[in-house]
Specification:
Length: 122
């Protein structure tokens, strides 16, 4: 373990059993089969739900889906410029804090949020 290992352990950076937990990886293939609703808005892309927030408060509701290990796509096409930036910043902050992945699918309009341990095939 060594001297530095002992210091890290004392500070709480290493667990007692020194064993690594194996993460299960769920792979989602994005082939972009689109389902639209009556408003010409896409409901989902390959089984991943697409949401269209119009305020930061609505975006706060979507983090519950990620906490339940569900991937989501957020489209900011119906937002004004400042609100869109605030939603993206909020979701990036949440992803950083929860070890989720924030992936830009379309230039500044479509974002994929993957819970921790979930992967996509490219």
């Amino acid at each position: 373990m060594g001297f530095m290992g002992g210091i890290f352990k004392a500070l709480g950076f290493e667990s007692e059993n020194n064993g690594k937990k194996k993460k299960t990886v769920t792979k989602t293939k994005a082939s972009y089969k689109l389902k639209s609703n009556k408003n010409n808005r896409v409901d989902d892309i390959d089984g991943v739900s697409v949401y269209y927030p119009e305020s930061v408060e609505q975006a706060k509701e979507f983090i519950e889906f990620v906490k339940q290990n569900k991937a989501i796509i957020i489209s900011t096409e119906s937002c004004q410029g400042e609100i869109s930036l605030r939603i993206v910043d909020f979701m990036k902050g949440f992803c950083f804090g929860s070890n989720s992945r924030f992936i830009v699918l379309n230039e500044d309009k479509l974002y994929l949020i993957l819970p921790e341990g979930m992967e996509i095939e490219e």
